[in-house]
Structure formats: structure tokens, C-alpha cells
Amino acid sequence: MEIKRIRRPWNPNEHKYGNRLKRDPFYHSSSWKATKEAFKQQQSILSNGKQISNALCYECMDKRNKATPMHTVDHILAIEDGGDRHDFNNLRSLCLSCHNSKSAKEGNERRKNKAK
Predict the structure, then answer these.
(1) 52 exposed, middle or buried (CB, 10 Å; 0-12, 13-18, 19+)?
(2) What is residue 25's predicted lDDT score, i.e. its pLDDT?
(3) Which of 42, 57, 66, 99 could join 95 in a cystine, given CB atoms 3.0 to 4.6 angstroms apart?
């Protein structure tokens, strides 16, 4: 009697979905880590002219006036779209929620443009 193996899609060792997310070695480089740490020490100016610490989420402060701690430093113009990797004018601190929604929108736009 043959026993059929149960597939558990939430277990990464059982399913190989492919490399959907490209792992860019740049994000593990010492130059990016140094840029990120230096950026966190700076301040940004909101659209209303108010200065905030880069330790807070830019989008939450700008749109909802809510002080949310930052989770990641994000490129405003994605690197693959021609954005500068180390320019502070192309960086923005975002919380996890804002970063995920921004990344999803960018990914959807990229897929739409690729399908055309």
C-alpha cells in the first residue's frame, strides 16, 4: 500500500514556489547599512513644511498625523526604475504597513506594464 504524502503549502521545505522575490545582495552590503544608519539620524520635511525624525513613518505623519515608529528605509523611486541607491532625497522611512502597501502598488503597476 502506497502512502500519499500530505502537502503543507505553509511549510517552505515542502513547496518550492520559485524565487518570486529577487534577493538583491545590495541590501546586505556594508554601504547600504551605513547609508541606512546615517539616514535614520537625519530629519525629513513633510509636505506641510513640518520637520520630523526619520525614526518615524513619513506616510503616517504626513497623511494621518500619527507618530508610528519606522520599520524600514524605502527607496521612493525603486532602484529597478532608475532610483539612486544612496541618495537621501530618494529615501523615506516607512512603517511595515505603509511599506507593504507601497510595494504592492508598485508590483501591480510593474506587472500591468509588463503585460502590455
Answers:
(1) middle
(2) 86
(3) 57
Instruction: Give 35's contacts (C-beta < 8 A, 6+ positions apart).
Output: 85, 86, 91
Reported as a single tens digit per residue, the pLDDT across 65-79 is 999 999 999 999 988
Domain ranges of the chain: 52-116
- Pairing type for strands 72-75 and 51-53 reads unpaired
Relative to beta strand 72-75, strand 43-45 is: unpaired
Helix count (H) and strand count (E) of the chain? 3, 4
57, 93 Cβ separation under 8 angstroms: yes
pTM: 0.76
Q: Specify whether the CB–CB gap between 102 and 94 falls below 8 A.
A: yes
Residues 62 and 47: their CA atoms lie apart, in Å, by 7
